[in-house]
């Protein structure tokens, strides 16, 4: 079974194009089992603002008090997940929305409870439910909400959650779908990036903000042996004429 993990950023859920869904369906028809892991950063921010709570980030991770956690889960599971599932269904893809914490799917631990509150990283993925859905031809759509082994809810960055799912399922491909065509430098898409080249772009400030956890997760997934790891746009087709369009991460160091 070839698994394709698609991380769909909150920045793009509302803007996914027709040709994006055509690309997903093309890959399904080629035999890939597709699982979506999604974010919802912009929706969480706007609800926090409505509640007069200022969003605070440290190194791309949202400081998550108990009050913030409630809003994070509400928006991820109640809004972003619903929108993505509905759009997939409208395009003929049989989608099932799940919270990452359902059926003990994603379990993890606090990263730094004193500094970040309920922010976690995933330590274990239970693939049972996902595999059951694949067998029946369903496409799981999963939030990055996870729990500790003692059952406390954790807010996990969606790029990192997608990376953990890709590793656990031994996925063939992991695609990070976002609102830009790939990693850009001077306005141009970089078609291929090695680890050293990526680190140099972080160092010189060409890669910043939400792109940092994305490229770091992409590299960690690549280093676990997942063959095709890319950042692609959800605004257009990302797979045409058997070719992917975006930034591909490569283990080959160029000389
Ligand atoms: N070198 C870069 N190339 C492209 N986008 C970049 C780069 N560095 C930072 N970014 C920013 O990263 C954003 C995508 O990350 P983010 O907003 O977290 O998206 P998502 O919600 O898809 O995870 C882009 O819209 C852009 O503003
Ligand atoms: C810990 C942490 O930062 N969690 C993220 C989870 C959502 C997310 O990652 O959404 P995007 O993919 O749209 O950025 C957050 O609270 O925003």
UniProtKB/TrEMBL annotation:
Assigned GO CC terms: cytoplasm
Domain Aspartate/glutamate/uridylate kinase span(s) in chain numbering: 3-233
UniProt main location, coarse: cytoplasm
Gene Ontology biological process terms in this record: L-arginine biosynthetic process via ornithine
GO molecular function annotations of the record: acetylglutamate kinase activity; ATP binding
Similarity comment text for this entry: Belongs to the acetylglutamate kinase family. ArgB subfamily.
Protein name in the entry: Acetylglutamate kinase
